[in-house]
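Possible race condition, two jobs.
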Amino acid sequence: MHGVPALSAGFTHMPYANPDAPKGGRIIFGLLGSFDSLNPFIVKGIAVQQIRGYVIESLMARGNDEPFTLYGLLAQSVETDSARSYATFKLNPLARFSDGKPVLAEDVLFSWQLMRDKGRPNHRLYYAKVEKAHALDDRTVRFDFGGANDRELPLILGLMPVFPKHAIDVATFEETSLTGLIGSGPYRVTAVRAGQSVTLTRNPDYWGRDLPLNRGLWNFDEVRLDYYREANGAFEAFKRGLYDFRVENEPLRWHEGYNFAAVKSGEVIRDTVKPGTPQPSEYLVFNSRRPMFADIRVRQALTLLFDFEWINRNYFFGLYGRSAGYFAGSELSAYMRPADAREKSLLAPFAADIKPDIMDGSYRLPVTDASGRDRANLRVALALLAQAGYDLDGTVLRQRGSRAPLTFEILVTTRDQERIALAYQRDLKRAGIGVSVRAVDAVQFDQRRLAFDFDMIQIRWDQSLSPGNEQAFYWGSAAADNQGTRNYMGAKSHAVDAMIAALLEAREETDFVPAVRALDRALMSGFYAIPLYNAQQQWIARWNRIERPKAAALTGYLPETWWQKPGAKTP
């Protein structure tokens, strides 16, 4: 996306793969939930996501040690110009679907039209930006982008799933189905138990097994995806060895739950992996469309009143960190980092909108004494609220003119969200702010979230090291009044819009990184959300029959690089 790829032509394998990994055996995933579809490329249904990659391939594949670099997969080569106004992909003549038929230009064009017309909304949006597409010969396709002015488009096209034209019924493609798609990938769907389990079997004739990109990947003969309805039941199944690894997301369980016999004997290994990508972060979001949150001073005050230290100690065993920005723990984060000359230049027209301490890197999130009764932050918060026109009337905070109390609702849908909201409710009560916590089911929560029908909700935005078009969907002014976008806070900032434009225009890393950090500063300065916590590591437990490379990718754990220990028994 920016600059040049890290690996030169002629590389032998990816740096995070073991090219000598033995083939064979089986790995069993334990997944939470259920499924009613084997097609993850459509809106309908709950699909098995692993179909992408394992069964269906794209023209190119990510290098997982780089922010956003693609290497040839189905495509043997790609050509574009400096403006990226077009992209020409030449297919590898060895490429075959699992039924033995070759992957041709007509399959690529068919797949583009299929995703543009019947794919998920993001696919339809991106692929509609192609002005013209045509085959130059049986194995060469050219896409012209006209005046789209989107430097990401060639890469987005490179990641487009490629389907066999001869094996897809366009009329029924958008319907859920438990029939496995035919793909060109290393695995085929060989068994399905509706809602419970899917078995993928390695294709011994897989065309791409000797590509440098794939060396040391796709090592298991069989991959089985087992689904569990409930989290505790899933954990008990892991303890019994019914599946091979789990990614732990629950601090209490990671801290106290892994004390069973197999852990003590070394049969179960606990790994912590620290990826270089932005850390998954949770936030309490202010809906600034609501009158009580329209004033930034109110949002600043309420940020001061959140007691992270108490919550981290009492709920999370001190295992979580916290960052003020939206790219936590990565090189893109502006938090605790002074702006460089390029950032200052970008933000100069918007100097009034950027807090000086956020600009110079000295801003810090409030820190409490973890007592749940911190007086210092309360005093500063009440002073800010007084500036915004609110005064304490006994134990109630009221607006100076109307005498109306400051009250709002926190909408929650999980037990964890509820206990954080209740702890925050307690903190706010000390400032005279009345908060109600409303628990609703997941369907109602999603409906109200998408319609911006809430005062405050807990949410997360997952970020990559190559933020692009989706940032306008997250924070752009145009998205603020467009229901269904992820601009939950209703941000409308000229500075934010300009920084999104700057990062989209950047061609080199030296322009891109400052543009993203400048966006981070503009977002932090708006106090649109209260940072709750972020996971600084990936917690993974695996039975020792499964082995992994010593080097982890920049993106973290990758089960496709693992293998079964030679001589280990498959349970």
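Job #2 (started ~2 s after job #1):
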Amino acid sequence: MAAPNKGRRQAGSPGRPGRTLALFLIAMVALTGGMFWSGHVTPRLGIDLAGGTSITLQAKNTPGKPNAINKTNMDTAVSIIERRVNGLGVSEAEVQTQGSSNIIVNIPKGTNEKQARDQVGTTAQLYFRPVLTVAAGGPAAPQPSASGTPSGSPSSSAGNPSSDESAGNSDPSPSSSSTAQGRAVTDGLKKDVTPSPGASSSGASSDKDKPGASDKPSPSTTPSADPATAALEKKFTDLDCTNQAARTKANQGAAPKDTIVACGKNSGGEWEKYILGPAELEGTDVDDAKGVLDPQRGIWIVTMDFSSGGTKKFQSITGKLSQQQPPMNQFAIVLDGNVVSAPSVSQTLGGSAEISGSFTQQSAQDLANILSYGALPLSFQEQSVTTVTAALGGEQLEAGLIAGAIGLALVVIYLVAYYRGLAGIAILSLGASGVMTYTIMSLLGPGIGFALNLPAVCGAIVAIGITADSFIVYFERIRDEIREGRTLRPAVERAWPRARRTILVSDFVSFLAAAVLFLVTVGKVQGFAFTLGLTTLLDVVVVFFFTKPVMTLLARTTFFASGHPWSGLDPKRLGAKPPLRRSRRVSAPTDPKEA
């Protein structure tokens, strides 16, 4: 008969429980040490426990779209605002609708509250518009010039608000005469001729826009020939960009295809005003944006990558703008009606661009965050900002912890009464699970922005029952083996495979329920689902790497191996029957004398 393979561990053998237990304890010590080293020795608390800021936003109809406030647009706005706030590292921010036109944003205390508040209601409507003319930002007296343009509107010294800015490869815009700029205004406002590079279906600019074209304006392009042109020029002349109210009303209600006036700051921080043509590219064409430090210039910039469709548009636009004369070879990057950059173009550019100017690290990253997550489909007005105190949440947390402590005490009493000595193993396992859960929650706060709220606390309390259930399954399997007449050590190893399958199936169902709940819900309920899923995974880890090795080691002790009445494994109490053994019968003597 072949000799058994000594190198292969037999089914039901104890393996190396000491090594497994040592690895688990090392991992637990490492996590605890990491928690203290990070300085975050307590979990981050959500707004219901720690307090914070609650912002109410009211939606306003988009110009030209009277029915824009609907469920689809409101849900889209909620999703975008939530991604923006979480993109700043503010987790557990609650964003939800209230009624048909309000959105409530709850930001926990201790996070970037001010930064998040600045971004939640920012519409982030981004457009690339061709520059028709530019002038100093203050108001000017409307004095007609030879070209029919107010002499105060375009200034030769205000050619490019960002002459040191660029979009890919670009050159500073040289100075231009007021006559040429005045012609740009009137030509750009014509309905049939526009310097916008994408306006011509043939892809070519008109002769009037090409270098060397006649400087004499056509009578049909004079301001008096078109009341709309005259009105826009007057608005441009009277615009005072140093006045915030005037900047807000400058292009309020304008559609993307309208010619508008707008304000922006140049590289020196001075206000300048523009007349801009219809939008040729929108923020939806931006695929990704990042705030980065330009190592060559030592300034913060925002880089943008366009989508495939946006790349084609951008190449077409820059190719045509590069053939124009200043200032019409510039395109303005307009965010929520304000010009944030107006670089000039000297050649066709590819699928990326950059916005440069007086950015700080935070402002560059804020703008990139807004552009990356898209524009809101609606405009919002901040209705109220309320500071939320943690007093009520603290009381609820205290009540929840008391309920959890009562539940844990009842579980311990039941384990001691029914399992006696085995209850010690269960209590140690619950303690190990509690330490792992606490340290991981504390580390997840700065790691992924996890914040503990009341539903998450409920999930942790529910997990006590899930973890205790795993121990009970294993203990009952061991008792079944003892009832069949086996001693403790083989009973522990033979019971493990069957208990393991049951525990894995049970925990898989719990984890699946938590995952589905996390995916289909929003807000605080996700905290419950996340905590439930986390503790379910930790239950598997604790049972496999702590409870089983400890049970194997204790089965070698006299107290448990001898079946002590207080061990919880007493064969007599369990009703175990000794195995049947064959014995030789001895006949009883019939005669008393023979006995």
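The chain is about 45% helix and 15% strand.
Logs attached separately.
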